[in-house]
Amino acid sequence: MAAPTLAHHTQNGAVPPSAGLSPWARFLWEAPLLLSMLFTALVVIWAQDNDTLERKALRQSVMADTLSLEAQLAARLETEAVKLRAAATHLPPAGADPNQQLATLPEIAAGLDRRWLSVIWLDANMRIVAEARREQRPGTHGQFQSQAQGISLHLIAPTSDERRPQTGQLIARYDPTDLIKSKDFWWLAAQYEVQLLSGLGEVIVSTETPGQVARGETFETPFNAVPDARLRLTQRVRQPHWFTTLPVVLIVGFLVLISIATLLLRRQMRQVTRTEGAWRTEAAWRQSLEESALVGLRARDLDGKLLFANRTFCEMVGYSVDELVAQGSAPDAMVKTTQDHSAIHPTQRAGQETRWRHRDGRILDVMVFESPLVDGAGQQVGWMGSIVDVTERKRLEELERRQREVLSNHARLSTLGEVASTLAHELNQPLTSIVSYSAGIAKALGKQPGTQPDLLAAAQALSRHASLAGGIVHRIRSRLARRDLVLLACDVNTIVSDAVALLTPDLKRAGVAVSLSLDSSLPLVRMDRIGIEQVITNLLRNASDAMAQSASPRAISVRTALCVVPPLRDSAGWVTVIVTDTGPGLDGRDIETLTEAFFSTKKEGTGLGLAICRSILESHGGALYAQDAERAGACFSFSLPPDKASQETQAAATP
Ligand code: ADP
């Protein structure tokens, strides 16, 4: 199926609403008419020119034909004249029957047979000697039958004998019509009307056919064979005017048709222009809507190929519309988008919430609404999606949730504080008693000979635990009473060793091996000893708990060192305690999550241990860190700033 084409625009601009047909293009519809008119004008000029040339040629042809006919007629008459002169020279002296004499003269008889109507013999006194007529000749079979009974012309030849040069005249009368209508000139008779005119312009003889008037080109020339006569040739058919010739008529008809077609075209053009104007307005409105919409819009064909995207959509994903359309499908960073999208049912008007990735890697929460995209014929060609960026809304919701959680934590903490305060208050007295009694028992057992060492060790451990518990309760009471902590310069290694020694029996029971690696050159740290010991024991307990389900060897390594902790930027280094275990690790959780109050993955956990540790460390100006160990397990560490004064003293004492 052919991909549907949709008008898409760049972020810089789109179809300018004002951009229509250029003024030239607006009048393009007139072009065929104008060109046709120009063509017609050229044809008319050509026809006129051609007509002039043809008329000139025709006139010359008529002239040539007239002169040719005149020459031929003159030649024929000259021949007749020569023959008459020959007859005149052969005339015998007039006898008893001169008429008979004349008619039987071979030259005369031949002349009468040929063309002559009659021959008259005149003597020197112009008296008729004899006369011979064609009609008198039996079985006349001349080439011509006389048709005109009217005007006739004659040839004259002088008669003479030996004694006198002129004794009379021989006059031969002939019909000029016979001459002109001679079949020898049939080709002329078909084309021309031939007329012989007198000097006064009267028609002596004409080849005019009744009912047919010759109207064409005419030419006159003096007919020298007959004194004062003129020969005129007139074309029977008149040369038509150039504007009545078929090509010109056809061209004019063509012009009329083109004019009608142009009118129809103009009407159509106006309609198209109106439609185009409406379309442009609509497109401009649509563009403004798309540009101003805060909702991302995008159109895809049925194969999921992107066809169109509006500015908001482009800003949302960080790609230009050209990049998106050129790629056809979603760019790499948007693969998730497409995958997610294909899961959305297109007719799901309620929209679907999903997550997209911006070009810069940022994650967006979006709501996608899809509806079918149809073409002009109502055929579905793809899907039109509107996308609402709900990231900010989500963030605010999350913030609100956290604030609610913090508030509820605060409420729980304050309740817990009250409980702790009451407990601390109530436990203080019994614990003090336990401490002093256990110390007394341990002392007494130590003095008594034969005391079992196990019993003595248990009494001493009891005394130490009791005094630690007493210290904790005391510390809690001091913190709750907002009394300042008593900070003393202490050796962290000692505290680490004490804490490990305190928990060793428990760790042994849990099958955990502890290894210590203590840096003996560490500076002293001003601290609340009980608090820091509480931090270390808490980290050790957590490590032991994390490995409780672990099948692999359970081991805790405790290391102390002077470290330059990047975020703290103290080039001298801070005293750092690092506790590493071989448990399951942190499962992607960061220190923020782990130190959230009440966050716990343990059944019996309170989720307060690490939060209290962090609070204790931060109250010392230190920090708590957590990360996965290099091989397996978790690595918790904390850093404390060294005590400057004791550090300087130590430096001075070192040789
Ligand atoms: P609690 O011990 O009562 O759960 P904590 O604040 O001490 O509370 O610990 C919070 C959570 O941190 C624990 O529930 C556990 O999921 C995680 N955690 C602490 N230490 C470790 C460790 N060493 N290895 C893995 N997870 C740990």
Poorly predicted segments: 1-18, 140-148, 331-337
Strand order of the largest sheet: 10-9-13-12-11
Radius of gyration: 70 Å
Strand content: 15-25%
Distance between the termini: 89 Å
Count of DSSP E strands?
Answer: 20
The hetero compounds bound to this protein are: adenosine-5'-diphosphate
The count of helical stretches stands at 17
Basic shape: rod-shaped
> How much helix, percentage-wise, in residues?
40-55%
Number of folding domains?
A: 4
Summarize the biggest pleated sheet.
5 strands, antiparallel
Average per-residue pLDDT, rounded, comes to: 82
Given the helix and strand composition, which structural class is it? alpha+beta
Provide the fold topology.
Elements: H1 23-26, H2 31-89, H3 98-104, H4 106-114, E1 116-123, E2 128-133, E3 153-159, E4 168-174, H5 176-180, H6 186-191, E5 192-197, E6 203-206, E7 218-222, E8 230-235, H7 246-292, E9 296-301, E10 306-309, H8 311-317, H9 321-327, H10 335-343, E11 352-357, E12 363-374, E13 380-389, H11 391-447, H12 453-480, E14 488-490, H13 492-509, E15 513-517, E16 525-527, H14 529-546, E17 555-563, E18 574-581, H15 591-594, H16 609-619, E19 623-628, E20 634-640, H17 644-653
Adenosine-5'-diphosphate binds next to helix 14, helix 16 and strand 20.
